Amino acid sequence: MEEKIFDQDFFAKLNKLNFLVKMSLSQGANGGRKSTAKGTSVEFSDYREYIQGDDFRRIDWNAYGRFEKLFIKLFMEEREAVFNIFLDCSKSMDFGEEKKSKKALQLSAALSYIVLNNMDKLQLHTLQDNRIHTLQGISGKASFQKLLQGLTKVDFKGQTHLVDTIKQKNLKQRGVSIIISDFFTKEKIEEMVQYLGYKKQEIILIHLLSREEVAPYFEKMVNLIDSETQEALKLTITPKVIKTYQETLTAFCQEIEEKVVKYNGAYVKVVSDESLEKILLKSFSAKGFINKV
């Protein structure tokens, strides 16, 4: 998988990308992001009066000369952000001439690389049926090969109770939650968004669809079979049916976007035949959660 997804040029582009995290971080190990905690990094934050036990090296002697009081400098401490990537591994994700499953794995790997390359902490979760499988929490670029090995073992089958399964994850730290899915579920997406918002997560929904789902082309009579439930539906395809379908799909996508924006999250629709480079450098950048550094 590594050879198919990444080449030297693309790695160079990934090295120049970073996630934009809007939240203030007050927990987590030392890392590369500004937190609300006060520490000793290079960025000055504020002053406070010296109290017994403070480090003498942090006293501002220039301020003492002006005010005849001891003040110490406070600095903005740098923390790591915690990212959770939730990957929908249901059978419906394994659809399309350019399969959604392949693009989902590519996106999971690329986003994971960006997270690890920027000294943040990552947990990647695969969702299938009513189970959540979590790859061990990892940080640092050296962990990337281990993550790739885990992704090569992922298959797409059965159903995924997306909302109920994500709610099984007890998110203890403020962080960023990314869900990669086609969101073909009977559950209410807003319940999932509410839960993640309650857990103080920045929410990013990546809505992954195949080209056949975005712009279907059928003629006459077709027999449609649900890949997860095996339910069948015979349908005569007419221009009116296609128009109704496209209007329904547009409304479906708009509803999901409205739900996540309501909780200050981000929504991006991705088509599986789009290049990974275009998705990362254009679609994600346009939504404001990835930038070049």
Automatic annotation (TrEMBL):
Tell me which SUPFAM superfamilies the record gives: vWA-like
- Which InterPro entries does this chain map to? DUF58, vWFA_dom_sf
Q: In which domain of life is the source organism classified?
A: Bacteria
Query: Ranges for the DUF58 domain?
Result: 46-248
Matches recorded under Pfam families: DUF58
PANTHER family in the cross-refs: BLL2464 PROTEIN, DUF58 DOMAIN-CONTAINING PROTEIN
What name appears for this protein in its UniProt entry?
Answer: Uncharacterized protein DUF58
- Native source organism of the sequence: Natranaerovirga hydrolytica
The uppermost taxa in this organism's lineage are: Bacteria, Bacillati, Bacillota, Clostridia, Lachnospirales
